[in-house]
Design brief:
The chain is built from eleven helices and no strands. With about 230 residues, the chain is mostly helical. It has one domain: Urease accessory protein UreF, CATH 1.10.4190.10. The protein is globular. It starts with a helix and ends in a 10-residue tail after the last helix.
Length: about 230
């Protein structure tokens, strides 16, 4: 295999690793998505509690909202269709059930949109007003620009979400690092089926509700002592 062929096949994977890295400066590590309050109120006390909490969200909101919308956003980026991208962003934001979750989406969106400019991605400047509303949109735009296959991009997005929240729980519950890795191993095994569901999800089936997440996130907005942002 020649150097050029290796670059064509290897580089998209390396770019995806960069996109999902916890070191990406978009502030992902500063949010707990309700976990901090769920720990304080006693909902999450053990690794098994965390496992159930995240598995439920993977199989509901990730499978039926985030990932189907991400796939549509990447298609819109590939078609360079800001109208379709805007509609997808509107849909995703409407599905965020609390102010805290909506603010996280937009704050991380602005940070990622700035990063797309720093990476000098084609059309990033023209698209910035649209992409700055949603970090999922910026992720999809970068995935398209870097030739990352949509299913692989969705897998990376799901992994980044999962890893970030497990690391949050390791700090908050607290859990040992080994327990956190055990949770990651088990829940990562759910992601392929979640991707299948997301890819097969028709437009009129997009939507899910996680009442416990909505309650925890809403309560976290006014939690007296907290480490993570609202």
């Amino acid at each position: 295999m020649g150097t050029l062929t290796r670059m064509i096949t290897d580089l998209p994977l390396l770019r995806l690793m960069q996109l999902v890295s916890p070191s990406l400066p978009i502030g992902g590590f500063t949010y707990s998505q309700g976990i901090e309050w769920a720990v304080e109120t006693g909902w999450l006390k053990t690794a098994a509690d965390l496992d159930g909490w995240l598995a439920d969200q993977l199989q509901s909101s990730l499978a039926r909202v985030d990932l189907p919308m991400l796939l549509r956003m990447q298609a819109a980026a590939g078609a360079r269709d800001p109208r379709v991208m805007t509609a997808a962003i509107d849909h995703l934001i409407a599905a965020r059930e609390t102010m805290e979750l909506r603010l996280e989406e937009s704050n991380r969106g602005r940070a990622l949109a700035d990063l797309l400019l720093a990476w000098d991605l084609a059309d990033a400047r023209e698209w910035r007003p649209v992409l700055a509303r949603s970090q999922a949109a910026g992720f999809a735009f970068a995935a398209d620009a870097w030739g990352i296959a949509p299913r692989r991009a969705a897998a990376g997005y799901a992994w980044a979400w999962l890893e970030g929240l497990v690391l949050t729980a390791v700090k908050c519950v607290p859990l040992g690092q080994t327990q956190g890795q055990q949770v990651l191993v088990r829940l990562a095994g759910l992601i392929p089926a979640v991707l299948d569901q997301a890819q097969a999800c028709p437009d009129d089936a997009i939507g899910a509700s996680c009442p416990a997440l909505a309650i925890a996130s809403s309560a976290h907005e006014t939690q007296y002592t907290r480490l993570f942002r609202s």
